[in-house]
Design goal:
alpha+beta, four-stranded antiparallel beta sheet, DUF3605, N-acetylglucosamine-induced protein 1
Length: about 210
């Protein structure tokens, strides 16, 4: 049976449509335009012909990281827990762990939407109770605090930012954890200043408040 490509027909997703999809957690609805889809497939084919995986390309060429930089939480509890006594296990805490870059192959969004990816050397743990590999409510609160400090406290309206992390079953790159951030009508100069940086990472005080320690 021929697998049909995942292509968005008609016009691009509007900001209102994007908001509805993210709010409903219907992430499987996102797609690229036909041109974007074929460009992405050609890019992966070209890498494959050189013996390069998409994971290796992102690590080496886009992030300038090594595979040995990627690590998992050291906690053996299940589900993984966060503790200020184990700062090495705190996501979005260590500045050297994060990097903000443009999504090289974004979904088919209207021109006013900028699609960023924020990558993490420390693996963002899945929720063990999620059948599709989503993240836990606690992990979402931690990410939201980071985004608040990095974007909203710097002047981005809460109405002009959305984020999501693709479930494991939707991820094309699984070996390096990342979240998607969508910005609507945000000043390009502000975005450029963030590219290549870690954003504003969390402090132990942030974590203590989130964890009610």
């Amino acid at each position: 049976m021929t697998i049909q490509p995942k292509v968005k027909t008609g016009g691009p997703f509007t900001w209102t449509q994007i908001q509805q999809i993210v709010k409903a957690n219907e992430l499987e609805s996102f797609a690229r335009s036909e041109e974007q889809y074929h460009s992405y497939q050609q890019f992966k084919h070209d890498l494959s012909s050189q013996g390069i995986t998409i994971n290796d390309h992102v690590l080496k060429d886009e992030l300038q990281w090594k595979q040995s930089d990627i690590r998992y939480q050291t906690s053996t509890s299940s589900p993984p827990e966060y503790s200020t006594l184990q700062p090495q296990d705190l996501i979005f805490y260590n500045r050297d762990d994060e990097k903000i870059i443009y999504n090289k192959f974004p979904y088919y969004f209207e021109d006013s939407v900028v699609h960023l990816c924020i990558w993490s050397k420390l693996t963002i743990p899945n929720d063990v109770n999620s059948p599709v590999g989503d993240i836990s409510p606690l992990t979402k609160r931690i990410i939201e605090r980071y985004l608040q400090k990095t974007f909203i406290e710097k002047g981005v309206s809460p109405d002009d930012i959305l984020w999501f992390r693709n479930w494991s079953s939707l991820q094309s790159i699984r070996s390096v954890s990342h979240i998607h951030v969508l910005l609507h009508d945000v000043d390009e100069h502000f975005i450029q200043k963030l590219i290549g940086t870690s954003g504003t990472t969390l402090t132990l005080e942030d974590y203590k408040e989130i964890l009610n320690e």
